[in-house]
Amino acid sequence: MILLYCVIIIFNTIRNENSFLNSVFISQQERRGVLERGGKVMEREKLLSRLRSVIKVNGHILAVAVGSGMTAQYVVAGGADLIVAINAGRIRQMGLSAFDAFFGNMDTNQMMLEFATKEILPRVDDFPVIAGVFMQDPELHLYEHLGKMEQYGFSGIINYPSVGLFDGHFREALEKEGMGYEKEIEGIRLAHFLGLFTLAYVFDENQAEQMVKAGADAICVHFGITGGGMLGANRVMSLTVAMKMAENIFQKVDAINPEIIKIVCGGPVQTPIDGHSFYQNTRCQGIMAGSAIERLPVERAMLNTIRAFKCYGDFDDSNIITHVLNGTEGETDYAKFMKEYIEKNYGKYIRLKDLSVVAHLSSSRLSVLFREKYGTSFTNYLIDFRMKKAQEFLRETDKSIKDIASLVGYDDYMQFSKMFKKKVGMTPQQYKNTCK
Predict the structure, then answer these.
(1) Residue 319 confidence (pLDDT) above 50
(2) What percent of the chain is modeled with pLDDT above 70?
(3) How far apart (Å, rounded) are the C-alpha atoms in residues 410 and 127?
(4) Residue 43 DSSP symbol
(5) Which pLDDT belongs to residue 321?
(6) Alpha-carbon separation of residue 292 from 108, 282, 383 (angstroms)
(7) pLDDT for the residue 275
(8) What is the pTM of this model?
(9) How many angstroms separate the CA atoms of 328 and 324, rounded?
(10) Which secondary structure element, helix H or strand E, spans residue 397, and what is its range?
(11) Strand residues in 206-303 grouped as ranges (E)
(12) Mean residue pLDDT across the chain
């Protein structure tokens, strides 16, 4: 009887262990399907060795957060070093802002698995792909989920979406309920234990220290949602503030372990020039780009192509507007571009935000460049130019004041009249009478 009881206990123990192991590892059929589509894994030590070699030779690495198989293929062909599969990449492909990645209107982890295993892994062969994991998902068994990553074909993980982008009362409530940044530190620690390459988003020195101690192989200082373009954040920290923040964090990291790879992303990091600023002024060893590669250039290229198809007139390569619209490489006088654009298009609806899209610079940066060169704001120059053209039409033509308002970009006659009086000192009708 005692012997039978012992057999039953052993049988139940084995059964439970097998059940747990089956939950940790994907089925053979599922694994076979993933591997047939791609999903060859670059092991952690090999990947680390490769990245460090690139840093020694090239000075820095490039990781790209992608949301589609097409983007992934161009990322590999272009010579990037890492692909990062996060839900923000997919959301960008849907025409939404990366802010939407932080709302609970989707199964974040399942979304990542869906597009990454079907589109990215099959198209990049043995290229290293890092999986974004939302650690705070209350229905997620973190150890089980991380245990499947390598078998799917991922070389490592990153903590995204991250609650590090939240602050204030909401952040405090998350921490209180056990859904704070500590969950992400735990995830990095578990992934390191499982032998995965670990890339950690951090937002301050304390988080960086904790992530390094948890076993992160690379630290990425996140400056917030990338600015610029049509879907970017409207408010981002300056490049100077970002560089100072990054350097303070990197000093902390090096004091613990100088072998940790140090990269930055988001916020003001929108162009290759921004990246070089970090390489020259901080200990930064790489950039992670998502919007800067997958969104901003696409916005610009599509807008320019569509406008080119609709464009009337010639395509003079020496013209600075054509130069900017075509994205021609080299030094560009963006202030002159804006001035000439106003002079040739003053009768159209003009917004600095639209020009920032095609120039691939933030509105605030363009505004500063314009003021530095011409001593006035972009908006003030636009209004002054329109009012001068209006005076010219009033003096030299018999057109109605309403028609003239439309010719200089004002659909609202009352707004035109008000602005004219403010700039000229009299109403359009009074000015016309004076000219007669």
Answers:
(1) yes
(2) 76
(3) 54
(4) P
(5) 60
(6) 22, 20, 32
(7) 85
(8) 0.61
(9) 6
(10) none
(11) 218-222, 261-265, 286-289
(12) 80
